[in-house]
Write a structure and sequence with these properties.
Length: about 475
């Protein structure tokens, strides 16, 4: 659905009026188009204590062709970057800011104690105003639960406050994330940095991501622009909305997509599959025979590499007014089917080792929502399923993660009454709804062959929605 206010706010007359009234001014977000570089503009690098990820960062920046600059308090970056063959220099100096940059990357892994947190202050105090529109902030830390001293765990946990506050302060379409990297997992950061620094992450902000040891083998794709070449990807609910966008992103990035939807949606399903050169599979995933049918289809295909559980339904009523069958229907389609299908596909080997499962939850499953007890139970359950099955599936070399969308412009949200819809759209740091492609890009990042260090993560694609924050 079109967001008329966004267009108006960016017209000459609308911008004047909106400024005068002090209304929120959403900026059109930069989004990825095929073949464009990961980042257009320089990266300013900072750090505190004895940062431990500088070499890994320099390696990634050199492979993505990013220009980098060293903040005053991290002069050692220049030699680390030069060693990796990067063009680099010092940024600003003598209390004066340097050039505008597209990203601020701060390596906080060396912070051992809260008294060192002023390193964050100096870096972001100096540089916050120098971030270009749709800028990127990435703070890297160590998972607090793995820190050897409680002092270190404390300061590492405090990074969340910094990340989330920056997401609210930066404005102009900029995003801010915290990435916890386990010791020894330095080699697994590339797919995540490529995602977070690029326009693919347009509507993801204030998220905490954990990168651990690789599940199965760490794979580097031959072509980062076509990471799914030769891969088979199942997308449920693919005839329209977010599911169609997911199928499109996987096809763009080289996959053969098996597009699944209910038989009633056959026409739309055929259209999507035909457009993408994929396969249409009409099946009600809520039916008792669905898991076995999917195992048979996957085996006939030589196994699937990625399964995306996107199909979902809402049947809203307050719990006092809700009929039992409505409860059962929503929990079955949104949650129990996913459990049954995952077990059947994993136990039969129909998902290959090195495979990826990505589920779609919702911020309703995190925050709860009036009239959505059934939906919120199903979507919170998806998070529970991801967390509890990740270690079991890891034994087979398979990762499982989830995205939790906020307000996304689809037929589902177009049906919401106007006043509630406008509230949902504006109550986030981007002052606008997300696009289906934003959810799709996050799913493709989790499903990436190089994302084997990511499992049991749940990431919101919500523009830092105030709901459930
Ligand atoms: N749109 C949003 O703002 C939003 C926000 C949070 C979460 N989500 C979630 O994102 C997912 C996609 O949402 P959407 O907005 O594109 O919804 P949508 O209603 O446009 O699409 C859902 C698709 O799933 C299919 N489906 C439903 N039941 C099925 C079944 N039993 N078997 C096979 N296919 C089935 C439908 O036919 C439909 O094509 C859902 O899981 C939804 O809960 C959406």
């Amino acid at each position: 659905m079109k967001d008329g206010y966004l267009d108006f706010a960016n017209s000459p007359m609308g911008a004047k009026l909106i400024n005068a009234l002090g209304l929120p001014k959403p900026l059109p977000l930069e989004r990825y188009s095929e073949g464009q570089p990961v980042i257009k503009g320089s990266v300013l690098v900072g750090g505190g204590g004895e940062p431990q990820l500088l070499e890994a960062l320099a390696g990634v920046f050199s492979r993505i062709g990013a220009q980098s600059l060293a903040h005053d308090k991290l002069p050692q970056w220049v030699s680390v970057a030069n060693k990796a063959g990067l063009t680099t220099g010092r940024w600003g100096g003598n209390g004066k800011p340097g050039e505008k940059v597209k990203a601020l990357v701060f390596d906080a892994t060396g912070l051992e104690d809260s008294t060192q947190s002023d390193a964050l202050y100096w870096f972001f105090h100096d540089a916050a105003r120098s971030l270009l529109p749709c800028g990127r902030v990435v703070i890297l830390g160590r998972p607090p639960e793995e820190c050897k001293s409680h002092r270190k765990a404390t300061v590492q946990r405090s990074l969340e406050g910094m990340t989330r506050s920056l997401g609210k302060e930066l404005k102009k379409g900029s995003i801010s994330q915290l990435v916890y990297v386990s010791e020894g997992a330095e080699g697994n950061i590339e797919s995540t940095l490529r995602f977070l620094l690029s326009p693919r992450a347009a509507y993801v902000s204030a998220q905490v991501i954990r990168i651990g040891q690789p599940v199965g083998q760490l794979v580097t794709p031959a072509d980062w622009n076509k990471p799914f070449a030769g891969k088979k990807v199942l997308v449920t609910g693919a005839s329209r909305g977010i599911g169609a966008a997911i199928a499109e992103v996987f096809a763009r990035d080289g996959a053969h997509v098996i597009c699944l939807d209910v038989p009633q949606a056959q026409e739309g399903l055929n259209e999507v599959a035909k457009k993408l050169g994929g396969t249409a599979l009409a099946l009600d995933i809520g039916s008792a025979e669905a898991p076995q049918k999917l195992v048979d289809a996957a085996k006939a295909d030589g196994g699937w590499d990625v399964v995306v559980h996107n199909a979902g339904i809402t049947r809203d009523k307050t719990v006092a007014n809700m009929k039992e069958q409505i409860w059962l229907l929503v929990v079955n389609v949104n949650l129990s089917t996913q459990e049954r299908i995952n077990e059947a596909l994993v136990n039969s080997g129909a998902i290959k080792s090195g495979g990826r499962i990505v589920c779609v939850s919702s911020i309703s499953g995190i925050a709860g929502n009036m009239g959505q007890t059934n939906y919120a139970v199903s979507k919170a359950g998806v998070i529970g399923m991801v967390e509890s099955t990740a270690p079991i599936f890891a034994e087979k070399g398979i990762t499982i993660n989830a995205v939790a969308p906020g307000f996304i412009e689809t037929q589902m949200t177009a049906a919401i009454p106007f006043a509630i819809r406008e509230g949902g759209r504006r109550m986030n740091s981007m002052s606008q709804g997300g696009q289906p492609v934003d959810v799709a890009e996050a799913i493709a990042w989790f499903a990436h062959p190089a994302s084997s260090g990511l499992t049991a993560n749940v990431i919101r694609v919500c523009g830092q929605s105030l709901i459930g924050a």
